[in-house]
Design a protein that fits this description.
The structure holds two protein chains of two kinds.
Chain A: E1 4-5, E2 10-14, E3 19-25, E4 32-38, E5 45-51, E6 56-59, E7 62-67, E8 72-77, E9 86-93, E10 101-102, E11 106-111
Chain B: E1 4-7, E2 10-13, E3 18-25, E4 31-37, E5 44-50, E6 53-57, E7 64-70, E8 73-79, E9 87-94, E10 102-104, E11 108-112
Parallel strand pairs in B: 2-11
Antiparallel strand pairs in B: 1-3, 3-8, 4-5, 4-9, 5-6, 7-8, 9-10, 9-11
Classes of the chains: A mainly beta, B mainly beta.
Chain lengths: 112, 113
Amino acid sequence: DQQVKQNSPSLSVQEGRISILNCDYTNSMFDYFLWYKKYPAEGPTFLISISSIKDKNEDGRFTVFLNKSAKHLSLHIVPSQPGDSAVYFCAASPQGAQKLVFGQGTRLTINP
Amino acid sequence: DTEVTQTPKHLVMGMTNKKSLKCEQHMGHRAMYWYKQKAKKPPELMFVYSYEKLSINESVPSRFSPECPNSSLLNLHLHALQPEDSALYLCASRTSGGYNEQFFGPGTRLTVL
């Protein structure tokens, strides 16, 4: 049972435009949601997180939106840059849990 | 210092070898993790250490043996591995506050021949 789903394996966006990566979850006990970026042969890099008591969190070009009723979160990157080309994983956990539950990842390609 | 470091970066070993992977963090995090990652897959949790004690073992085969000598160091001892164990091995550490953010090291690319 996949509790965190990223239904788009890949996404291609023009440089300078907005990239929107989506993530759905099924476990209503999740309190924390995180996004990671991963380049090939490197460890994932933490990007941004949000708590279930918020619906939006911003950090520079990255904004995460959370819709609890729909059990959906999204990561917006604007403007998209070539260096944003990577695999993006969303992850979730209940408060106090030691584990993160990861989605399968979305490969983002930014085209010049 | 906001970094998790891992050595070696690459490791090639035979099925009869014994080797160790090392991880270090100086962020004062008291939870440390070992993950295994295959290409095009998310990280797969192997072990969690909390306050230097093993708190989670995700039914990992005994040919993988973790060790936490102190709060900054984490080792993964490898013995009699199989070719299918070839993967990127990631170490991570976690803050004790916040939103359960885990910070990953660069990984060790392991190839078992």
